[in-house]
Amino acid sequence: MEAITIKDIAKALNLSTSTVSRALRDSYEINVETKRLVLEYATKMDYRPNPIAQGLKENRSRAIAVIVPEIANNFFSEAITGIEDVANAMGYDVVIFQSHESYEKEVSNVRNVVARRVDGLLISISNQTKDVSHLSDLHERGFPLVFFDRVSDDIDTYKVVADNFSGAFKATDHLLSTGKKRIAHITSSAGLYITKERLSGYKAALEKHEIPFDANLVHYCVNFGYKEMEGIIESILSVDPMPDAIFTASDRLALACFEILLTRGIRCPEDLALIGFTNLKVAHLLSPALTTVTQPAFEIGQTAVELLIDLIEKKKRMSSTFMIKLPTELVVRASSGSKVPGFGGS
């Protein structure tokens, strides 16, 4: 059967299309009895509004764009699931773009977002992004924009993140509490918000335990490439005395550490304890199981899209509380050298 239209309802009830349209929108201009007739008939005939026609009338597409560095990254795939969960329930479609950690690709993605005339944008910026003028231009024109996870301090809009400082502090404090003294920290690009926050948490834990911060123990992995990680691990292993633990700013980096240390005969956690940040779904299946910090990726996606849709529909005015931080949790397993029942910790 073909979908019933407003014209069909109007013809069946001997009403004008404008009267039916207003009745379906619960307009005060239409009397109660007419509204009842229209709504009963629409329900009986399983009437569904045409989203394309609605969008044209409202000058809205009922679609939002999401730009992430990489969908294959477990954090972003979970965040996108959270975004779609809320957006679809509220009648919005989601268009997804990947920057692949490229500033140029991100700028191109933003151009495509504008060309597609979506109603708003959720973005987590790339590793290479330092200049955010392509996003500032959108924001200054009143285009609804919300950052999540990787955010910019240069644009005053909503930003939804995990509590990166607290997560890094708990991870480093845990290692120090188990007797580790020299903890290397492998992180992402120095300019990223998450990098700064996790480094600050790492430093704060060192300060708590009265251990001096050593900048030589901090390594930045910009491109997340295997060769780049090999060079970083070689640097860590060549230091005298060698670090007794590594805290990585992502599980992706932790997995590379696992692989490279294994090829060099370095035992984890006996020779080097290891902690990640994300809590991949396979983290507990590794050998040894990976101690890591859980980020609420799904909830970050949900919160970010709720804020964006509120901005689109003008239900929320921008407040002074731009940054929304969701809690992180340290999940202790065997790789950090702790004695965890069932995981063979040492």
Task: Describe the protein in words.
The strands form 2 sheets. The chain has a 6-stranded parallel beta sheet, with helices on both faces. Strands 7-6-8-9-10-12 form a 6-stranded mixed beta sheet, sandwiched between helices. The protein has 3 domains: about 5-50, no CATH class; about 60-160 and about 295-325, Rossmann fold (3-Layer(aba) Sandwich); about 165-295 and about 330-335, Rossmann fold (3-Layer(aba) Sandwich), CATH 3.40.50. It is built from 12 helices and 12 strands. It is an alpha/beta fold. The protein is elongated. Helix content is about 40%, strand content about 15%.
Task: Please bin the fraction of helical residues.
Answer: 40-55%
Task: Give the structural class.
Answer: alpha/beta
Number of strands: 12
Percent of residues in β-strands: 15-25%
Reported CATH architecture of the largest domain: 3-Layer(aba) Sandwich
Average pLDDT value? 90
Low-pLDDT sequence parts: 340-346
Label the overall shape. elongated
- The tally of domains stands at 3
InterPro entries: HTH_LacI (IPR000843), LacI/GalR-like_sensor (IPR046335), Lambda_DNA-bd_dom_sf (IPR010982), Peripla_BP_I (IPR028082)
Protein name: Transcriptional regulator, LacI family
Domain HTH lacI-type: 4-58
GO molecular function, one term: transcription cis-regulatory region binding
